[in-house]
Amino acid sequence: MEQILVAGANGTTGKKIVQLLHDSQYFNPIAMVRKEDELPYFKAKNIDTVLGDLEEDISHVFKNNIDKVLFAAGSGGKNVVGVDQEGAKRLIDASKKNNIRKFVMLSSMGADEPSKAEELQDYLKAKHNADEYLKDSGLNYAIVRPGSLTNDELTNKIELARKLNKRGKISRNDVAQTLVHVLNDDVANKATFEILSGETLIGEALDKVSAD
C-alpha cells in the first residue's frame, strides 16, 4: 500500500480524506497534525499519525517512507502567508528532498487570478503563490481548485474543467473523493483544474484531465 502523508488531516475536509484513504485497499494515510491533542481522534481509528507544524521544520515527517503527499491544510484566514503559502512551500521542498512521487494540492477556485477576486484576495494570492511554486518544483503534481465548500452529502459527481468560468459550490465529500482519486498514478499528472457539483461521475471526469 502507498503511504500518503495528509497535511491538514484534522480539518473538516482533511478528516474525510484520511477516512477515505484508510478505507481504501491502495493507500495508507499518515495524518499530519499540529497539536498533541489532535492525535487521539486518529489513533482511536488505528490511523497512523505524525506531529508536524507547517510553520516549523517538518523534515522528520518523512521518516515513514512516504510515497505521496496530499496538502489539505489551511489557516482559516488567520495566517494565510505562514501556512497556506509558506507552509505549503516548506512541504513541497521537503517532498522534493524525499523523492515524493506525487504532490496533490487542495487549492481554491480563483487562485489562478487572485487580483480579480471580490473577496479573500489575500487568501487566494497565498494559494496562487503556493500553486505556482508547486508547478515550478519539478515534482509530479495535481492542483485541485474547488468552488465554495458545503457539508452536503456525497454525490460522486462533479463538473470539471481547467477553467469553469463560473462560480458555484461543491460538497467537501465530493472534494475529498476527487482528491483521493487523483492520488492514483494514472490520473491527473502535472494537471490543474477546477471542480464544482455536477452530473459527471468523478472517475469519468478525471479521465479527461490533461497535463498543463
What are the defining features of this structure?
212 residues, alpha/beta, Rossmann fold, 9-stranded mixed β-sheet, two-stranded parallel ribbon, 6 helices, globular
Structure report:
By secondary structure, this protein is α/β, with parallel strands linked by helices. The chain has one domain (2-207): NAD(P)-binding Rossmann-like Domain (Rossmann fold), CATH 3.40.50. It has 6 helices and 11 strands. It has helices at residues 12-23, 39-43, 80-97, 121-135, 172-182, 202-207, and strands at residues 2-7, 27-33, 48-51, 68-71, 102-106, 141-146, 148-150, 157-161, 169-171, 191-197, 200-201. The strands form 2 sheets. Strands 3-2-1-4-5-6-10-8-11 form a 9-stranded mixed sheet, sandwiched between helices. It has a two-stranded parallel ribbon with strand order 7-9. Helix 1 crosses helix 5 and helix 3 (80-97) packs parallel to helix 4 (121-135). The longest helix has 18 residues, at 80-97. The model has no long low-confidence stretch (mean pLDDT 95).
Write the layout of secondary structure elements.
Blueprint: E1 2-7, H1 12-23, E2 27-33, H2 39-43, E3 48-51, E4 68-71, H3 80-97, E5 102-106, H4 121-135, E6 141-146, E7 148-150, E8 157-161, E9 169-171, H5 172-182, E10 191-197, E11 200-201, H6 202-207
Parallel strand pairs: 1-2, 1-4, 2-3, 4-5, 5-6, 6-10, 7-9
Antiparallel strand pairs: 8-10, 8-11
